[in-house]
Inverse folding.
C-alpha cells in the first residue's frame, strides 16, 4: 500500500504548457515549442498533461494561469516577453504574483554585452528587458535578452520563458529542467520505438493483439502512424529504472519478432536515417532525380549530419526540357507516354546514375495536386524508380492527400523502396 501511495504521489506531479501569442492562434507561426518541451520533460520523467495556447490578451493569459494550476503542479509559459507593447506577459506576471518591477543586474549586463558584441545601438526599450518582478527568481538568458522567470504559489511552480525557440531551449536545458529535478521527485519513464512499413495500423493491431493485452499495467503500447509507416512505442513508468528498462527491453524483443516481416528499424529514427546508415555500412553512395518532389528527398538526406559520406547529389528536373537536358530523357517518350510514367522514371534514374556516378539512385515523377490530374493519371499518381547500374525497378503508387502530404509520402516511400532494394542485394 505504501508503494502504491508513493507511486500515486509521484505520478500526480504533472506539468502544463501555456504558449502565448496571437500568431499561434491564427496559424501564422506553428507552435514547435510545446512539442520540444514535452519531449524533453518526458525524458526527465515529467508528465505533461495539458498544452494550451492563448492570445496576447490580459484576461485570457490570467484565466489560463488560474485554470492550469488546477490540473498541474508545474506550469511552463513561453512567449510575450519581447520589448514591444504587445508583449504583456511580464507586467501581467508581476501583478498576478503581487510584486513590483526591479532591475536584474545580471540580465542588464547580459543585454549590454549582446548589443556591444553586435555593434548595435542600445536604447532604453532594450534595457527594460532586464526588469523583472521582485517575486521571481530570474534566469539569465544566455541566448537572448529576455530572462526566464521562476515563480511559486501555493506549492505550484510557474516558469516564464521567451517564445523564441532557440532561447527557450537554452533556458529549459540549462536552468528549468535541472531546477525541476531538484525540487520534485519523478518516476523514471522509458521508451523503446520501432518502425514498420507495408502493413496498416488496424492489421498491425490484430497481429499483436495478444501481446498488447498481456502487457503489465505500467507498460503501454502506442501506435503512431505516419506517411504509410507505423511506429510502435513501448513506454514504461516505474521507480527502479534499471529493473523496468530490463523488462521493457525483453518485451521489445518479443514485439520485434512479432512484426519482423514489416520491421524497418528498431530505433526511433526516420526512414532517411535508416537508408543513410545502410549506405554508410556498405561504403556506398546514392543520388536522386526528382521531379514532383522538387528536391524534398535531397532535403531530407542532407539534413542528416555527415550525409556527404553517402549522398552525392540530386537533379531536380521539373520541366520536360530539364529532363531532356539534364537526364537525357527521350523527348519522344515524354510526348507519347508523359512525364508521369514508368518509362520516364526509369530513364531519369538511368540518367542520374550516368551523370552523378553514384552506386544507387532514386527517381520520382508524379502529380501532387491539387490540379493536373487526368482520367488515366489522377492527382496522387506517382512513379518511383530505384536501382543501381545493374538493375533499376519501378513502382506505381497512388496517394489521396494534399500537395504537401503527397510530396512527403512520395519521399518516404521512395526511400523505403531503396531500402528494400539494398536489402535484396541486387
Amino acid at each position: 500500500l505504501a508503494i502504491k501511495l508513493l507511486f500515486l504521489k509521484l505520478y500526480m506531479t504533472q506539468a502544463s504548457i501555456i504558449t502565448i501569442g496571437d500568431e499561434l492562434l491564427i496559424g501564422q507561426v506553428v507552435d514547435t515549442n510545446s512539442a520540444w518541451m514535452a519531449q524533453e520533460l518526458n525524458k526527465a520523467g515529467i508528465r505533461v498533461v495539458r498544452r494550451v495556447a492563448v492570445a496576447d490578451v490580459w484576461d485570457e493569459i490570467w484565466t489560463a494561469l488560474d485554470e492550469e494550476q488546477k490540473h498541474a503542479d508545474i506550469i511552463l509559459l513561453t512567449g510575450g516577453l519581447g520589448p514591444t507593447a504587445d508583449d504583456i506577459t511580464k507586467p501581467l506576471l508581476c501583478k498576478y504574483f503581487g510584486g513590483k518591477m526591479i532591475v536584474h543586474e545580471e540580465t542588464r549586463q547580459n543585454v549590454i554585452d549582446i548589443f556591444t558584441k553586435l555593434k548595435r545601438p542600445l536604447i532604453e526599450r532594450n534595457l527594460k528587458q532586464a526588469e523583472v518582478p521582485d517575486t521571481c527568481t530570474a534566469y539569465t538568458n544566455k541566448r537572448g535578452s529576455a530572462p526566464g522567470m521562476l515563480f511559486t504559489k501555493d506549492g505550484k511552480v510557474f516558469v516564464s520563458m521567451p517564445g523564441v525557440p532557440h532561447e527557450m531551449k537554452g533556458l529549459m536545458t540549462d536552468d528549468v529542467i535541472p531546477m525541476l529535478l531538484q525540487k520534485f521527485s519523478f518516476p523514471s519513464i522509458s521508451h523503446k520505438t520501432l518502425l514498420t512499413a507495408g502493413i496498416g495500423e488496424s492489421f498491425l493491431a490484430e497481429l499483436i493483439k495478444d501481446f498488447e493485452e498481456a502487457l503489465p499495467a505500467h507498460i503501454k503500447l502506442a501506435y503512431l502512424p505516419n506517411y504509410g509507416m507505423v511506429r510502435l512505442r513501448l513506454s514504461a513508468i516505474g521507480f527502479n529504472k534499471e529493473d523496468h528498462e530490463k523488462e521493457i527491453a525483453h518485451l521489445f524483443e518479443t514485439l520485434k519478432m512479432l512484426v519482423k516481416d514489416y520491421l524497418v528499424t528498431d530505433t526511433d529514427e526516420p526512414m532517411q536515417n535508416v537508408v543513410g546508415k545502410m549506405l554508410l555500412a556498405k561504403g556506398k553512395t546514392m543520388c536522386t532525380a526528382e521531379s514532383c518532389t522538387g528536391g524534398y528527398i535531397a532535403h531530407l538526406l542532407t539534413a542528416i549530419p555527415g550525409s556527404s559520406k553517402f549522398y552525392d547529389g540530386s537533379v531536380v528536373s521539373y520541366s520536360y526540357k530539364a529532363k531532356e537536358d539534364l537526364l537525357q530523357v527521350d523527348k519522344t517518350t515524354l510526348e507519347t507516354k508523359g512525364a508521369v510514367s514508368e518509362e520516364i522514371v526509369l530513364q531519369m534514374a538511368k540518367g542520374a546514375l550516368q551523370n552523378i556516378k553514384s552506386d544507387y539512385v532514386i527517381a520520382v515523377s508524379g502529380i501532387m495536386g491539387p490540379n493536373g490530374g487526368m482520367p488515366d493519371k489522377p492527382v496522387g499518381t506517382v512513379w518511383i524508380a530505384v536501382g543501381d547500374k545493374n538493375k533499376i525497378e519501378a513502382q506505381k503508387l497512388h496517394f489521396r492527400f494534399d500537395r504537401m502530404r503527397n510530396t512527403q509520402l512520395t519521399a518516404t516511400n521512395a526511400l523505403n523502396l531503396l531500402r528494400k532494394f539494398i536489402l535484396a542485394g541486387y
User: Anything to note?
Assistant: The CA atoms of residues 194 and 266 lie 4 Å apart.
